[in-house]
Amino acid sequence: MKTRPSFSLSILASALLSAGLTGCSSTGTPAFQSAGNDITVEQQARQIAQQRIIVDTHIDVPYRLHKDWEDVSQATKRGEFDYPRARAGGLNAPFMSIYIPASYERTGGGYQLANQLIDSMEALVGRAPDKFAMAYTTADVQNQFGSQKISLALGMENGTPIGGDLTNLQHFYQRGIRYITLAHSESNHISDSSYDLRRRWQGLSPFGKELVVAMNNIGMMIDISHVSDDAFYQVVGLSKVPVIASHSSLRSYTPGFERNMDDDMLRALAKNGGVVQINFGSSFVTAMANQYGALRKAAAKQAGVADDAAFELAFRKKNPYPFATLDTVLDHIDHVVKLIGIEHVGIGSDYDGVGDSLPIGLKDVASYPNLIQGLLERGYNEQDIDKILSGNLLRVWREVEAFAATQKAQA
Ligand SMILES: [Zn+2]
Predict the structure, then answer these.
(1) Beta strands in 219-286 (DSSP E)
(2) Distance of CA 52 to the CA centre of its chain
(3) Distance (Å) from CA 222 to ligand 1 centroid
(4) Which of 106, 221, 265, 339 has the largest count of CB atoms under 10 Å?
(5) Ligand 1 center–CA 135 separation, angstroms
(6) What residues contact residue 167 under an 8 Å CB cut-off, 6+ apart?
(7) Contact (CB, 8 A) for 275 and 392
(8) Closest C-alpha to 349, from 193, 225, 257, 192
(9) What sign results for the dihedral spanned by CA atoms 290, 294, 297, 298?
């Protein structure tokens, strides 16, 4: 029994080979040990992207299609999102931005536009039910994970469609909106905006304060991206549940840019239990790209011409845009983790929302594996990466759902 015919070993070897289990047998490495250990960091990143839930809280597909329709259930030439690229990148649940330009606060029509944009996402699901499904709850995101379907969650960017009437909050909750960015680039009837020097409310309006409470009660996440610092502090003071910044980066890399969060705000966000979802746009992550727009505007003014698309093209030819890189975005994530911990950071790319300003290495929804590879190379383990990809956001969303359930039970 000590010696076995050599042919049985070769049978074993070929069985292992056909099962794909042998590694580098020629070097004498035991087959089973080498299996799984030999994959590159790039391969590991691709695996994690497919095996973990990826939630991106800000993608501007609805408004992109409203302006320039394409069939995103197929590969598209324009834009940064389509089904094949999302699948390749491992994206499971994008929050589709129901974006209402700030001007609608003055002109009216925001309620109608919001409903049209929601209709367009339902139409997409209706046309391609094998590829997309709506997601109204954290359970929907979990349950649809592992199928071929991408879960479409809805966030409303700019509270203008609420129109000062809480019955509209109820309406948009029923239509599936699960977060509202209180204001956009101009102050509105709810809140002051970081981009708007007129500080009409010194933070939130009286209705805005009511709205925060009502959003808590109904189970709608509060998004503090875009609002002024005063409004942010008033929101975290009032909210009984954690809040999100759906697509903001850090002010320490873009000094003076109120649209991003400073370190004190991050500490207040951590105390609230909330999460900042890092915006990838170059102008959000580096000071150079951040100042580029102001330089272009100044050049247009000096030349006495409009700062339009044609001028931008000409300006870019003379002054190449200073694209950020994947590493800069990783620096922002690192900064949050070092300052307030791994529980409070996620991703809100702003794909289809920031034009041709995306960092090298993060150009579209196929790029999440690059981000994961970068995190692995910086020493993050898979559990930590999972928190960044979706765990933190889903935790906040679950808390918001749970609080609303207790309010309904009491009613
Ligand atoms: Zn935005």
Answers:
(1) 221-223, 244-245, 275-278
(2) 15
(3) 14
(4) 221
(5) 21
(6) none
(7) yes
(8) 225
(9) negative
d(CA 149, CA 129): 8
Run of H or E residues at 217? helix 206-218
Query: How many Å lie between the centroid of ligand 1 and the Cα of residue 31?
Result: 51
Q: Are 64 and 121 in contact (CB under 8 A)?
A: no
Q: What is the pLDDT of residues 182-221, one digit of tens each?
A: 999 999 999 999 999 999 999 999 999 999 999 999 999 9
What SS3 class is residue 95?
strand
Q: Which helix (H) or strand (E) holds 133?
A: strand 132-134
Helix (H) or strand (E) holding 153: strand 150-157
- Tokens 């580096």 found at: 286
Angle (CA) 242-243-248 rounded to 5° is: 140
Instruction: Please enumerate, as own/partner, the contacts of 197-205 that have beta carbons within 8 Å and a separation of 24 or more.
Output: 199/228, 199/230, 201/231, 202/230, 203/228, 203/230, 203/231, 203/233, 203/234, 204/231, 204/234, 204/235, 204/238
Token pair, residue 34, equals 């080498």
**Strand pairing of 132-134 and 177-181?**
unpaired
Enclosing H/E stretch for 335 = helix 326-340
CA of 157 to the centre of ligand 1 (A): 7
pLDDT of residue 411: 75
Measured in angstroms, how far is the CA atom of residue 359 from the centroid of ligand 1?
17
- Rounded to two decimals, the pTM is 0.90
SS3 content of the chain, % helix, strand, coil (to 5): 50, 10, 35
pLDDT for res 33: 39
